[in-house]
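Supplementary Data S3. Sequence and structure tokens for construct A.
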Amino acid sequence: MHYRKLGSSDLNVAEISLGSWLTYGAGVEKDKAIACVRTALDIGINFIDTANIYGRGAAETLLGEALTGVPRNKYILATKLFFPMTPADQGLSRAQIKKQLENSLQRLKTDYVDLYQCHRFDRNTPLEETMEALTEAVKSGKVRHIGFSEWPVAGIKAAAAIPHVAKFVSSQPQYSMLWRDPEAEVIPYCAKNGISQIVWSPLAQGVLTGKYKPGAKVPADSRAASNAMNGFMGEDLMSDTVLKAVQNLLPIAKDAGLTLPQLALAWVLRDPNVASAIIGASRPEQVIENAKAAGHKLSPDILARIDNTLKPALQAA
């Protein structure tokens, strides 16, 4: 495994990290989920990402059980808050940050999280209140560092301008060969201001594994076939134009000495501002195979071929 420094923090995170969105505590059986977590730790993946909203606490509870008995200094744990846990419990107010943090710590069976992230930007709470509450959480020792997910650049800049508050060290955007929006503003700003990317959906919900063929039925054991896990797979992502372009990446991956999923992961990691790519896994074998993407450098020729091959898909999106 290879590691990268997370922004201006003192954390060194694995280039490949394990996430729990739509999988643990929901779409993946408990024993398989725990096996994935243990396998990840065994092969050097030290960063595990979750959120209170994943399964409305179920993912955190599963991880709390899976990590029981593992020395706390052997893994880096991140969770998030923002989305409604109940109609009355949502957002980034001081009261919610305090309440949701305590609840997350209980489910995760730990005294602190290494990274506490604002899952989205809260336009209904004064930003000063949010940042002051996050700073209080850091001073309490229950949070080591703070981050955000899918914030607008204006919000990131505004938070940075508030004096005497904790500073963000991480950004968690959707980013993949098929979804490049962060390249416009978020990554350039963060790269200049000590904030690293921890990217979600680097395999585009599994589309970049090549398992979905144009004009064919989806595999019965795939995410697209699962009602619990396919809610975010839109028609654009599963269009024949996109799926054909992805199939055309296969010879490029072969020439690079990688599988297609490994190529997709190495692609996001080509950017030095990306500290880690979050994978989701339903089987330990997937964790092992995806982790092999760490440390691979893609040549300029391979990168150019990827861009040329995906032009139809990017234009369709």
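Construct B, processed identically:
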Amino acid sequence: MKNILSAILAFGLVAVLAVAPAAAHGGEKHGSMKHGAMKHGGAAFHSLHKNYEQIRASLADDSLDGVAKAARSIANRAGRLATAFDAADAGVSAGDAAATKALLPKIKDAAKTLSTASDLEAARAAFGDLSASMVTYRDMIQGKKPVVAFCPMVEKKWLQTGEDIGNPFGGKKMARCGEIVSK
């Protein structure tokens, strides 16, 4: 019985020692991702983009359906990330962490403005401000990214899922006006 207890205690000590180096580095083992890299796969950016894409699609369809709710979600998520910034959750390298953290209040403010827009013109203006910041953020994330489109008529960029142009600034009148400028 004494030998069994000794074996169990020894095994437990070996297990603790094996986990300790990883725990000291936020759960990452040496040789794994660089500190601050996409540990969570950029969950924050992808959460923001999911709501952003809903807004883009509504504006491209000349609609405000769901725009306010999605914009509030973006403002809330950007605010939480700015308050408790984590480069891994943000999906950026340690080198881009400061720039990303500085960008989050702009995303939050533009989304708040968008959430109160009462007509398409005001929504599109606020979406332009949001898009400028989201395109900058997108350029810093690691991994899979949405494409960047540009409309020469309104001289604005936006993000979208897929390469079929869906212009949020021109709506149905200019639904296909634009080109993909970054994949």
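The first strand starts at residue 147 and ends at 151. The CA atoms of residues 116 and 146 lie 26 Å apart.
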